[in-house]
Amino acid sequence: MADVGGMPHPLIEPGLWVERIGDRVFPQHLPALFLDRDGTINVDTDYPSDPAEIELRPQMLPAIAAANRAGIPVVVVTNQSGIARGYFGWSVFAAVNSRVLDLLGDHGVSVDMVLACAYHEAGLGPLAISDHPMRKPNPGMLIEAGKRLDLDLQRSLIVGDKLADMQAGRRAGLAQGWLVDGEAAAQPGFAIRRLDDGDDLAGLLPAIEALGRDNGS
Prior knowledge:
By secondary structure, the chain is α/β, with parallel strands linked by helices. The chain has a single domain (2-214), classed as 3-Layer(aba) Sandwich (Rossmann fold), CATH 3.40.50. 29% of the residues lie in helices and 21% in strands. The protein has helices at 61-70, 81-84, 90-106, 140-149, 163-171, 201-214; strands spanning 2-4, 7-9, 11-13, 16-20, 33-35, 74-79, 113-117, 157-160, 176-180, 185-187, 190-195.
């Protein structure tokens, strides 16, 4: 726990936030639902930095609810280059992220872990690292969550609004992902599904529910 700006934050290194949310206990070797944050869970306002402006994307609420019901961990993995660039600090990220979690809670859904990577080649000081292993499209955040929650990454799913999210999922060993406002595609060993509107949830929700059934939930 690092002290940044007078407030303690769950930083395990200068540019990596790893926070366990809530106290749910999960059996070993469960799959997870990995979610990007900005543009996936909430509307991306281009480096979100004002909690009052946070607005959820309602399309993701049924997916998070399905994972909660199935007993599957929900893990947020988000790049935060705005911190690296000096636009805002970890305290602002904490306030915005808290608002996202509160809004989700207002809808009766929750996440279990949040990981954020602030490293970027255009960053300042110790955050100025190009192609850091934790920054998507690299798989570091997914692998870190996998170690901490003892996850089965091969059966896990990822939803994001950028190809970097899909690439991170593929590199972490996941079999498929859903691309918000994107096109379906196939890569070796990895399938990208589209998630443009509520109709596309017809594929994602059964996939989440099947993970729960596989684990006896």
